[in-house]
Design goal:
Elements (H helix, E strand, L loop, with lengths): L1 E5 L4 H12 L6 E5 L9 H6 L7 E3 L5 E2 L2 H11 L9 H28 L6 H20 L1 H6 L4 H16 L5 H4 L1 H10 L3 H4 L7
Parallel strand pairs: 1-2
Antiparallel strand pairs: 1-3, 3-4
Bound molecules: glutathione (GSH).
Amino acid sequence: MMKLHWSPKSPYVRKVMICLEELNALERVQLVRSVAAMTKPNAQIMIDNPLSKIPTLVLDDGSGLFDSVVICEYLNDLMSGGLFPQSSSQKWACLRWHAFGDGILDALILWRNERERQNPSANLINSFEFKVLSSLDMLECESALLEQSNFHIGVISIVCALGYLDYRFAALNWAGRAPKLNAWYLKIKQRPSLSNTEPVDG
Ligand SMILES: N[C@@H](CCC(=O)N[C@@H](CS)C(=O)NCC(=O)O)C(=O)O
């Protein structure tokens, strides 16, 4: 049985959980609640991943696989899934959205770390906000394309970024800024793999 260093709060872990559910592979993985914080390296995670990040997947042979980008593709291959389209007509749009969603998440995680410090840098906070709002503006322009898209890892990553905005940045009111994107999101978030994995405290 594989083992996943897991948390119900992490948007990157959520990508993996969505893939597992979409691929009908949930029962192949044992979830291990692991706390990962940038300032507190976790010895248990580091046995499997010296970078102390989640998600980390421990394979049946004991080796640790990371990060979420690699784990999701590994699971898709293992289960012969369709979450990583191969035809070039879909592949690059998919991988671009995958990088885009993950990139928004990277900015949000750094933003949250900064705002929780004692003397946050206004420069950094303003820069993260500017990048995230600009990303939302671009996604708003792409909402018709998202609407037409097959369900794949690119869509999963964008949904995880929007879900994390709802969870940790509610005051930003992203939905008010990007109404077409929000209309798409409200529909797609009802898909069981997405509604079952919304971030929660715990
Ligand atoms: N690029 C990584 C990012 C993973 C990541 O940053 N996870 C956070 C939790 S949401 C973490 O483990 N942070 C602990 C740390 O950075 O030390 C991925 O896609 O898996």
